[in-house]
Amino acid sequence: MLKTGVFGVGHLGKFHLNNWREIEGVELVGFYDPNDVTANEVIDKYGLTRYTDAAELLNKIDAADIVAPTNHHFALCEMAIKKGKHVFVEKPLANTMEEARQLLKITAEAGVKVQVGHVERFNPAYTAIQHLQLNPMFIEVHRLAQFNPRGTEVSVILDLMIHDIDIILSLVKSDVKNISASGVAVMTDTPDIANVRIEFNNGCVANLTSSRISMKKMRKIRLFQKDAYIGIDFLEKKAEVIRLKTEEGGNDFSFDIETPSGTKTISISNPEVKAGNALKDELTSFRDAIINNTPVVVSEMDGYLAMEVAHQVLEKINKIKFPV
Q1: 2-112 CATH, one of 3.40.50.720, 1.20.1260.110, 3.90.1150.10, 1.10.443.10
Q2: Residue 322: left (phi > 0), alpha (psi -120 to 50), or beta?
Q3: Does the reported pTM lie above 0.85?
């Protein structure tokens, strides 16, 4: 039985608690949260043991689930890793790049599993297209959200766009060549809306727009590659594939078009998107990696690389001088 504890039981932490309680082979030992009001709510609802000393809880568990605000990630991760505990930490990995580098170092020395909570990797719409040969050369991303004061201690880059940065880095097997970006702080002191262009050495270009002041919600990625277009709707849990048909059979809708090189058959298909709970699947994969001693899906290095690009974006935005 894998013994776990949750560190930080605010809005997102409560979702983690709910899912850990449903995952087999896991004993939820208790939680740590310095906020008395939040802690009492959890005690009343779940009957879980509260620990007011993070180290005391760490001594009683095998794996720590860190869902505290970003500025607390480093201290809690460092403490857990140095005690030889496996760590699941919500994105972003740390508050600063120096903290992230330190976590990479101590994780390598401790030899524990560290998984970063980039939950969109487990979105059913995204997993539904994993069987395809993906080699995108142009990527268009829109992630729009309505304003919510929660989570605004960081910019929209580290709050929302970092999800898509992680997805893109996992798809494009090439180093970043150049980044250009613009953003505006509207409701907070950090950028609330941003547009970013990432160019890769292999020629792929990704164009990302993220906003947390939109009137409507949207979470879509469009991938364009040789002979195919793949659309992924993370919000509606849908996927669409349009491509040149190379073989007969299948249940795709298809039609012919005339081109200078001859008749081409275009097929349109909607891969089956199975109902699922991305957060539960994410935490279950962390459990499996520990029990089976296999690699985690989103490693500390993945989290670091997504942070690195996100911080480069912020540097570009901060260099822009707007007229007064």
Answers
A1: 3.40.50.720
A2: beta
A3: yes
